[in-house]
Amino acid sequence: MDDVVQWLSENWGWVAAIVVGILVVAAALNLLPDARIPTSPDFPTSGDEARDLAVGAIQIVTSEGKWNDPESHTIRDSKGLRSRLVSMWGLTDRESWLETLEELPQRRTDSLRDSLLELRAELARTSGRRPSQREWLAAAKERGASGRDVKSVINAVTEIEKSLKKSALRTVVLPAGATIESVRGYAQGQQIALATWGVALGFATREDIRPVLRQVSAEARRDFGSWEEFGRSYLLGRVMRLVEQGMPVEKAIEKNDDGIRAYGQLFDAKRGNSGPWSTLPW
Fold first, then answer.
1. How far apart, in whole angstroms, are the C-alpha atoms of residue 132 and residue 138?
2. Please, what is the average pLDDT of the chain?
3. Which residues are in the DUF1266 domain (predicted)?
4. Is the model's pLDDT at 113 over the cut of 70?
5. Between 275 and which of 11, 196, 200, 268 could a Cys-Cys bridge form, CB atoms 3.0 to 4.6 Å apart?
6. pTM
7. pLDDT at site 165
8. Cα(49)–Cα(186) distance, rounded to whole angstroms?
C-alpha cells in the first residue's frame, strides 16, 4: 500500500493527465447532456405519433421542450414559459389558438420570396445544380422581377445558406448539390409545436391534436422528400422570418445557431443518442 501511495505521489502529473483525458473522451463521445436531443422518457420515440411530432422537433426543442412530448410538459409546468408563449403568440384562449394554428401557413408566406425560391428550384431542375447568385438574379430579371427588393431577398437567402453549409455534429446541413426549394417547412414545424402548446395551455387534449399532427405531417411529406430537405426548409424559413421582421441578416444568422445544433442532434443516433431523424422513416 505504501508503494502505491509513493508511486501516486511521484507520478501525480500522469494521473491527472489520464483523468483529464477520460473527461475529454467522454465529451467527444457525446456523453454530456447537451449533446443529445431533449427527449421525454414518458412518451414513445417510435410509431406514428412520434414520427408526426418529429416534424416539429426543431421548433419544440429550441423553445425548451422535449421533441416527443405531445403535451409539452416543459411549458405546462413553467409559468414563465407559458407567459412568454401567450405574449409572443397571442394565445389567450382556445379560439385564438385554433385561429393561429389554421392561419399560420398563410402568415408565413411572402409572394416575392416564395416566387424567387420557386424560380431557383426551376433553374436547378433544368441545370441539375443549384444556380449561382448571379444566375439567379439574371433569371429573375428575365422574368420581369428586378429592383432593390428582389436583390435584397436573393442576397439574404444566399448569405443564410452559406451559414447552413457548416457541419452540425458531423452532419452538413446544406451540401453543395442541394437546393432549398421552399420555406414551407418552417410553418409546418411551427404548426406541430403550436398544437402541443395548445395542450400545455389547456386549450386541447392529446387526443384532440392527433388529427392536426397527422395532417401537417402528411403535408410535409408531400412537400419534401426527406428529413434533410424538410430541415433545410425549416431553417431557411426561420432565419428569413427574422430578416423580414427587420433583423439584420448577420444577426438573424447568429440567432439560428440553436436551430443548426438541433438539426445535428436530430440526425445523431450514435452512442445511445436518440436522434429521431436518423431512426424514424421519412
1. 10
2. 89
3. 85-282
4. yes
5. 268
6. 0.86
7. 84
8. 19
